[in-house]
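Check out one such.
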Amino acid sequence: MRYLPVLCVLVVVCVLPAWALTVEQEAKLLPADGISHDRFGRSVTLYGDWAIIGAYLDNDNGWDSGSAYHFVRTNGVWTERYELVAFDGTPDDAFGWSLDLDGNTVIVGASRDDDNGYQSGSAYVFTRAWTPQAKLLASDGADQDFFGYDVALAGDTAMISAPLDDDNGAGSGSVYVFTRTNGVWTEQAKLTGPGFYFGRSAALSSNIALIGEQNGPGINPLSGAAHIFVRTGTTQWSERAHLYAADGWEYDRYGFSVSLSGDTVNRQSGRPREWRSLLALSYAAGMAGGTV
Protein backbone atom coordinates (compact mmCIF):
# COMPACT_ATOMS: atom_id res chain seq x y z
CA MET A 1 0.00 0.00 0.00
CA ARG A 2 1.36 3.42 -0.97
CA TYR A 3 0.92 6.57 1.08
CA LEU A 4 1.84 10.18 0.55
CA PRO A 5 2.96 12.44 3.43
CA VAL A 6 0.36 14.47 5.32
CA LEU A 7 0.87 18.09 6.34
CA CYS A 8 -1.37 19.75 8.95
CA VAL A 9 -1.62 23.54 9.22
CA LEU A 10 -3.55 26.36 10.91
CA VAL A 11 -5.14 29.05 8.75
CA VAL A 12 -4.21 32.65 9.50
CA VAL A 13 -5.11 35.49 7.11
CA CYS A 14 -2.47 38.19 6.79
CA VAL A 15 -2.33 41.46 4.88
CA LEU A 16 0.81 43.00 3.40
CA PRO A 17 0.32 46.70 2.54
CA ALA A 18 2.26 47.88 -0.48
CA TRP A 19 4.31 50.28 1.66
CA ALA A 20 5.09 47.84 4.46
CA LEU A 21 7.94 45.41 4.99
CA THR A 22 6.17 43.37 7.65
CA VAL A 23 3.11 41.10 7.51
CA GLU A 24 0.10 41.98 9.64
CA GLN A 25 -2.32 39.28 10.82
CA GLU A 26 -5.85 40.25 9.84
CA ALA A 27 -7.86 37.28 11.07
CA LYS A 28 -7.78 33.73 12.36
CA LEU A 29 -10.36 31.57 10.62
CA LEU A 30 -12.07 28.57 12.20
CA PRO A 31 -15.00 26.46 10.95
CA ALA A 32 -18.26 26.85 12.81
CA ASP A 33 -18.65 23.07 13.17
CA GLY A 34 -15.00 22.10 13.43
CA ILE A 35 -13.94 19.19 15.61
CA SER A 36 -10.74 17.32 16.39
CA HIS A 37 -9.07 15.55 13.47
CA ASP A 38 -10.85 17.57 10.71
CA ARG A 39 -7.50 18.88 9.38
CA PHE A 40 -9.02 22.27 8.59
CA GLY A 41 -6.39 24.27 6.69
CA ARG A 42 -4.71 21.42 4.81
CA SER A 43 -5.45 23.39 1.63
CA VAL A 44 -6.30 27.05 1.10
CA THR A 45 -7.03 29.35 -1.83
CA LEU A 46 -7.80 33.06 -2.05
CA TYR A 47 -9.45 35.19 -4.74
CA GLY A 48 -10.19 38.82 -3.88
CA ASP A 49 -12.37 38.82 -0.76
CA TRP A 50 -13.19 35.13 -1.01
CA ALA A 51 -11.31 32.29 0.69
CA ILE A 52 -11.88 28.54 0.45
CA ILE A 53 -10.31 26.30 3.10
CA GLY A 54 -10.20 22.52 2.99
CA ALA A 55 -10.87 20.12 5.86
CA TYR A 56 -10.17 16.80 4.19
CA LEU A 57 -10.89 14.64 7.26
CA ASP A 58 -14.25 16.24 8.12
CA ASN A 59 -16.95 13.61 8.66
CA ASP A 60 -20.06 15.16 7.09
CA ASN A 61 -20.35 12.37 4.47
CA GLY A 62 -18.85 9.71 6.72
CA TRP A 63 -15.49 9.38 8.44
CA ASP A 64 -12.71 11.28 6.65
CA SER A 65 -15.02 12.15 3.75
CA GLY A 66 -13.90 15.79 3.80
CA SER A 67 -15.32 19.25 3.18
CA ALA A 68 -14.30 22.80 2.27
CA TYR A 69 -15.40 26.09 3.80
CA HIS A 70 -16.15 29.36 2.04
CA PHE A 71 -15.28 32.61 3.87
CA VAL A 72 -16.02 36.16 2.67
CA ARG A 73 -14.37 39.41 3.77
CA THR A 74 -16.61 42.47 4.18
CA ASN A 75 -15.10 45.71 5.49
CA GLY A 76 -12.14 43.80 6.87
CA VAL A 77 -14.25 41.17 8.64
CA TRP A 78 -14.13 37.52 7.54
CA THR A 79 -17.34 35.49 7.83
CA GLU A 80 -18.07 31.85 7.06
CA ARG A 81 -20.74 31.64 4.35
CA TYR A 82 -20.95 28.06 3.18
CA GLU A 83 -19.61 24.54 3.60
CA LEU A 84 -18.97 22.52 0.45
CA VAL A 85 -19.26 18.73 0.43
CA ALA A 86 -19.22 16.19 -2.38
CA PHE A 87 -22.72 15.42 -3.65
CA ASP A 88 -21.79 11.71 -3.70
CA GLY A 89 -19.26 11.74 -0.88
CA THR A 90 -18.33 8.56 0.97
CA PRO A 91 -15.97 7.71 3.84
CA ASP A 92 -12.24 8.25 3.24
CA ASP A 93 -12.67 10.33 0.06
CA ALA A 94 -10.47 13.16 1.43
CA PHE A 95 -12.57 15.82 -0.33
CA GLY A 96 -10.75 19.11 0.30
CA TRP A 97 -7.24 17.67 0.15
CA SER A 98 -6.56 20.25 -2.57
CA LEU A 99 -8.49 23.17 -4.03
CA ASP A 100 -8.27 26.25 -6.19
CA LEU A 101 -10.55 29.23 -6.83
CA ASP A 102 -10.69 31.45 -9.90
CA GLY A 103 -13.48 33.93 -10.45
CA ASN A 104 -16.83 32.17 -10.10
CA THR A 105 -15.44 28.64 -10.06
CA VAL A 106 -13.81 26.44 -7.43
CA ILE A 107 -12.27 23.01 -7.97
CA VAL A 108 -11.81 20.60 -5.06
CA GLY A 109 -9.69 17.46 -5.08
CA ALA A 110 -10.81 14.22 -3.44
CA SER A 111 -7.62 12.24 -3.84
CA ARG A 112 -8.85 9.07 -2.11
CA ASP A 113 -12.18 8.73 -3.94
CA ASP A 114 -12.68 5.19 -5.29
CA ASP A 115 -14.65 5.67 -8.51
CA ASN A 116 -11.80 4.34 -10.69
CA GLY A 117 -10.46 1.93 -8.10
CA TYR A 118 -9.15 2.10 -4.55
CA GLN A 119 -7.90 5.67 -3.85
CA SER A 120 -7.90 6.45 -7.56
CA GLY A 121 -9.14 9.99 -6.85
CA SER A 122 -11.45 12.60 -8.34
CA ALA A 123 -12.07 16.35 -8.47
CA TYR A 124 -15.28 18.36 -8.16
CA VAL A 125 -16.13 21.65 -9.85
CA PHE A 126 -18.56 24.13 -8.27
CA THR A 127 -19.77 27.50 -9.52
CA ARG A 128 -20.96 30.45 -7.43
CA ALA A 129 -23.98 29.81 -5.25
CA TRP A 130 -21.88 26.63 -4.98
CA THR A 131 -23.86 24.60 -7.46
CA PRO A 132 -22.03 21.38 -8.48
CA GLN A 133 -21.04 21.63 -12.14
CA ALA A 134 -18.98 18.50 -12.73
CA LYS A 135 -17.12 15.59 -11.22
CA LEU A 136 -13.84 14.98 -13.05
CA LEU A 137 -12.19 11.57 -13.35
CA ALA A 138 -9.06 10.44 -15.17
CA SER A 139 -9.92 8.57 -18.36
CA ASP A 140 -7.39 5.90 -17.40
CA GLY A 141 -7.57 6.14 -13.60
CA ALA A 142 -6.40 3.20 -11.50
CA ASP A 143 -5.89 2.13 -7.90
CA GLN A 144 -3.89 4.58 -5.77
CA ASP A 145 -3.18 7.11 -8.52
CA PHE A 146 -4.34 9.84 -6.06
CA PHE A 147 -5.87 11.89 -8.88
CA GLY A 148 -6.81 15.20 -7.24
CA TYR A 149 -3.69 15.39 -5.08
CA ASP A 150 -3.19 18.92 -6.39
CA VAL A 151 -5.45 21.04 -8.58
CA ALA A 152 -5.03 24.33 -10.43
CA LEU A 153 -7.62 26.48 -12.19
CA ALA A 154 -7.34 29.34 -14.69
CA GLY A 155 -10.51 30.40 -16.43
CA ASP A 156 -11.90 27.44 -18.36
CA THR A 157 -8.81 25.27 -17.88
CA ALA A 158 -8.12 22.95 -14.94
CA MET A 159 -5.08 20.84 -14.11
CA ILE A 160 -5.39 17.84 -11.81
CA SER A 161 -2.40 15.85 -10.63
CA ALA A 162 -2.07 12.12 -10.02
CA PRO A 163 1.43 11.83 -8.49
CA LEU A 164 1.37 8.04 -8.13
CA ASP A 165 0.18 7.26 -11.65
CA ASP A 166 2.44 4.61 -13.18
CA ASP A 167 2.72 5.55 -16.87
CA ASN A 168 6.52 6.02 -16.70
CA GLY A 169 7.10 3.49 -13.94
CA ALA A 170 5.83 2.95 -10.41
CA GLY A 171 5.03 6.28 -8.75
CA SER A 172 6.18 8.34 -11.73
CA GLY A 173 3.10 10.56 -11.71
CA SER A 174 1.09 12.59 -14.20
CA VAL A 175 -1.05 15.71 -14.57
CA TYR A 176 -4.32 15.87 -16.51
CA VAL A 177 -5.62 18.96 -18.32
CA PHE A 178 -9.36 19.56 -18.60
CA THR A 179 -11.11 22.37 -20.46
CA ARG A 180 -14.64 23.74 -20.14
CA THR A 181 -16.91 24.64 -23.06
CA ASN A 182 -20.47 25.81 -22.38
CA GLY A 183 -20.31 24.33 -18.89
CA VAL A 184 -19.06 20.91 -20.03
CA TRP A 185 -15.61 19.72 -18.94
CA THR A 186 -13.50 17.52 -21.25
CA GLU A 187 -10.10 15.91 -20.73
CA GLN A 188 -7.67 17.62 -23.12
CA ALA A 189 -4.19 16.29 -22.36
CA LYS A 190 -2.11 14.18 -20.01
CA LEU A 191 1.36 15.42 -19.04
CA THR A 192 4.11 13.21 -17.64
CA GLY A 193 7.68 13.62 -16.38
CA PRO A 194 10.89 11.61 -16.21
CA GLY A 195 11.18 10.89 -12.49
CA PHE A 196 9.03 10.25 -9.41
CA TYR A 197 6.04 12.13 -7.93
CA PHE A 198 5.52 14.25 -11.02
CA GLY A 199 2.45 16.28 -10.05
CA ARG A 200 3.29 16.57 -6.38
CA SER A 201 2.34 20.21 -6.96
CA ALA A 202 0.84 22.16 -9.84
CA ALA A 203 0.13 25.78 -10.77
CA LEU A 204 -1.51 27.32 -13.80
CA SER A 205 -1.58 30.81 -15.29
CA SER A 206 -3.38 31.20 -18.62
CA ASN A 207 -1.43 28.97 -21.05
CA ILE A 208 1.57 28.33 -18.76
CA ALA A 209 1.76 25.43 -16.30
CA LEU A 210 4.33 24.79 -13.59
CA ILE A 211 4.50 21.23 -12.24
CA GLY A 212 6.58 20.06 -9.29
CA GLU A 213 8.27 16.65 -9.24
CA GLN A 214 9.63 16.34 -5.72
CA ASN A 215 11.79 13.26 -6.42
CA GLY A 216 12.52 14.08 -10.03
CA PRO A 217 15.96 14.31 -11.62
CA GLY A 218 17.95 17.46 -10.97
CA ILE A 219 21.63 17.90 -10.32
CA ASN A 220 21.23 14.65 -8.34
CA PRO A 221 18.89 11.86 -9.48
CA LEU A 222 16.29 12.34 -6.69
CA SER A 223 16.85 15.96 -5.63
CA GLY A 224 13.63 17.15 -7.25
CA ALA A 225 12.65 19.30 -10.19
CA ALA A 226 9.96 21.56 -11.62
CA HIS A 227 8.71 21.56 -15.19
CA ILE A 228 7.28 24.40 -17.28
CA PHE A 229 4.73 23.50 -19.95
CA VAL A 230 3.23 25.93 -22.45
CA ARG A 231 0.03 25.48 -24.44
CA THR A 232 0.13 26.55 -28.07
CA GLY A 233 -3.04 26.80 -30.07
CA THR A 234 -5.97 25.34 -28.17
CA THR A 235 -4.83 21.83 -27.31
CA GLN A 236 -1.07 21.31 -27.70
CA TRP A 237 1.07 21.29 -24.52
CA SER A 238 4.87 21.07 -24.70
CA GLU A 239 7.58 21.21 -22.06
CA ARG A 240 9.74 24.34 -22.32
CA ALA A 241 12.01 24.04 -19.29
CA HIS A 242 13.19 21.58 -16.66
CA LEU A 243 14.17 23.55 -13.54
CA TYR A 244 16.32 22.29 -10.69
CA ALA A 245 18.68 23.63 -8.05
CA ALA A 246 22.34 23.89 -9.06
CA ASP A 247 23.34 22.89 -5.51
CA GLY A 248 20.61 20.27 -4.99
CA TRP A 249 21.08 17.23 -2.82
CA GLU A 250 19.33 13.89 -2.94
CA TYR A 251 15.81 14.07 -1.43
CA ASP A 252 15.77 17.90 -1.17
CA ARG A 253 12.20 17.65 -2.50
CA TYR A 254 12.69 20.57 -4.82
CA GLY A 255 9.27 21.15 -6.35
CA PHE A 256 7.39 20.05 -3.23
CA SER A 257 5.25 23.17 -3.68
CA VAL A 258 5.05 25.63 -6.56
CA SER A 259 3.17 28.80 -7.44
CA LEU A 260 2.82 30.79 -10.63
CA SER A 261 1.60 34.31 -11.30
CA GLY A 262 1.85 35.65 -14.82
CA ASP A 263 5.51 35.21 -15.73
CA THR A 264 6.80 34.72 -12.18
CA VAL A 265 7.59 31.31 -10.72
CA ASN A 266 8.05 30.28 -7.11
CA ARG A 267 9.01 26.82 -5.95
CA GLN A 268 9.97 25.43 -2.58
CA SER A 269 12.07 22.65 -1.13
CA GLY A 270 13.77 22.22 2.18
CA ARG A 271 15.95 25.20 1.23
CA PRO A 272 13.61 27.85 -0.19
CA ARG A 273 14.55 29.98 -3.15
CA GLU A 274 12.51 32.27 -5.35
CA TRP A 275 12.60 32.05 -9.13
CA ARG A 276 11.80 35.23 -11.03
CA SER A 277 11.26 36.11 -14.68
CA LEU A 278 9.80 32.91 -16.03
CA LEU A 279 10.41 34.01 -19.59
CA ALA A 280 14.12 34.40 -18.88
CA LEU A 281 14.29 31.04 -17.13
CA SER A 282 12.33 28.97 -19.59
CA TYR A 283 14.43 28.64 -22.68
CA ALA A 284 12.95 30.36 -25.70
CA ALA A 285 12.59 27.08 -27.53
CA GLY A 286 12.39 23.46 -26.53
CA MET A 287 13.55 21.52 -23.49
CA ALA A 288 16.99 21.81 -21.98
CA GLY A 289 18.03 20.86 -18.50
CA GLY A 290 18.04 24.24 -16.85
CA THR A 291 19.47 25.72 -13.70
CA VAL A 292 19.40 29.27 -12.42
